[in-house]
Amino acid sequence: MPARPHTVHRPTTYAVTALVVAASVALTGCSGAAEASSGGPATQAGPTVNTSPDQKRITAAKDEKAAALLPAAIRERGTITAANAGAGGGTPPLVFTADDDKTVIGVEVDLAHLFADKLGLRVETPATSWENVFLGIDSGRYDVALTNVTVTEERKEKYDFATYRKDDLAFEAPKGGTWKVTSGREVAGKTIAVGSGTNQEKILLDWNEANIKAGLAPAEVKYFQSQTDYYLALSSHRIDAYFGPNPSVAYHVATAGQTEAIGHFSGAGESLQGLIAVLTRKGSGLAAPYAAAINSAIADGSYAKVLQRWNLSTEGLAKSEVNPPGLPKTD
Fold first, then answer.
1. Dist. CA 10–CA 169, nearest whole Å
2. DSSP class of residue 149?
3. Per-residue b/e over 43-82, b at no fewer than 16 CB within 10 Å?
4. Which residue blocks in the chain are alpha helix, DSSP H?
């Protein structure tokens, strides 16, 4: 794997390295949550995260206007499949296995249920691999997928999208400090850990180049073999911050209670806000009703409640869109 991607912000097969990093971050946080909860909600400092099988999900009333937009076959069937990439343990807090080691939970599962409520449908949320999500959509095995899929221009040629979250990155630092990161200038002279080959690495290295040109000291970039090593370095102050996928940072902040997010940035870089969306087959007629359902959930506050319970309020959208501008095609 190259140390740094060139000319692109994210490969069209998602950011696989970012996903691996996210999974290892989340497993570190999940271990802490399980120890704290003994099968129930984690109650360490920070927002409570319920990792038990009994999720007590946020529900919503059916939106007749959104439901009326559904294809007749789906409406008559009364059910919909919303796949996720949770097989093999998944990635907290997106989709992962609860404390019983079998129930699939996470913000993506919660949102799949919430949007189905709005459409007046019963939902099945099969967990599969990342690659099989797309194969299942292509074959018609799955109707939609909610699994942290970023909108890209290349994907829009084959799929339709209804957006429901920002695709963000975050800086994580020890709790209680005064340092905040609002631009690349704030990392000058700091020691930052980052995953090799990820979007966040590219952004950080681009900032270093700009800071050097501006006469500022570059950040010292650190790489570690595992996420446990990242967090040991952070707790021992050998690094000033970790720069990684926001959902995994948010989950670790909530479950470990010793760190905080000190800055958020688009996963697509400065030129575009990356967006996560419901994935549907091109021409299936499902993107528009899902966007309507999402907007209904935004309007009645149920959407915000779901994001809040997973500590992801910063990724909330004011409005769902169908097929908005996506990450540009790679060379």
1. 13
2. P
3. ebebbbbbbbeebebbebeebeebbebbeeebbeeeebbb
4. 16-37, 64-68, 72-77, 107-119, 130-139, 153-156, 199-213, 227-235, 246-256, 287-300, 302-309
Give the CB-side neighbour count of residue 308, counting CA atoms within 13 A.
Answer: 7
Direct distance between the N- and C-terminal alpha carbons of the chain, in angstroms, rounded to an integer: 18
pLDDT at 331: 64
List pLDDT tens digits, range 287-312: 999 999 999 999 999 999 999 999 99
Q: Is 122 helix (H, G, I), strand (E, B) or coil?
A: strand
Neighbours of 152 (CB within 10 A): 25
Q: Is the pTM of this model over 0.85?
A: no
Secondary structure of residue 83 in the 3-state scheme: strand
Integer angstrom CA distances of residue 225 from 44, 211, 218: 27, 27, 23
Give the strand pairing for 104-105 and 95-97.
Answer: antiparallel
Q: Return the pLDDT at 270.
A: 84
Average pLDDT value for the chain:
86
At residue 258, φ and ψ (nearest 5 deg) are: -115, -5
Residues 6+ apart with CB under 8 A from 228: 24, 28
